[in-house]
Fold:
Amino acid sequence: MDAASLALLIRDVPDFPTAGITFRDITPLLADPVGFRAAVDSLVEPVRDAEIDLVVGVEARGFVFAAPVAHALGAGFIPIRKPGRLPAAVDSVNYDLEYGTGVLEVHRGAIDAGARCLVVDDVLATGGTALGAASLVERQGGDVVAWSFLLELVSLGGRGRLPGDGPIHATVRLEG
Structure:
């Protein structure tokens, strides 16, 4: 299944979570077994030979993809969560969204110094969430060596905000 076919499985929901924002609902893609498998495979292939130690997934929809990507790569999985959802001591970071701000957390000591990390999320929009995740990885001494997203909203410019020179992969690229 190619990117154009996967794009057809992503539903637009206008004015969610706030007026003027179009939410990209991946629920139809997740419900389609061929589409879901193709989506996961599309996130794995560009980094298959990158010697990834940890796949970092951002709550909540990023988890859906990051865990099977980690499995396919033989890597560990690190969840980056919203506040108050991790039971032990955490590192946290504030970040900007297309429609506001947020906070992300990761367990302290979850990422070993020098760990080669892949950040996986469902959507790359303005890049704020991805930058927040990268900040948490780097605070713990890990290195973000690549990025994989199911969907990129190109007109919002998130790709240009991501640090480093590692590859940035987005399976489906939409203008806005």
Q: What stands out?
A: Helices lie at 3-7, 27-31, 33-44, 61-73, 128-139. The CA atoms of residues 44 and 69 lie 6 Å apart.
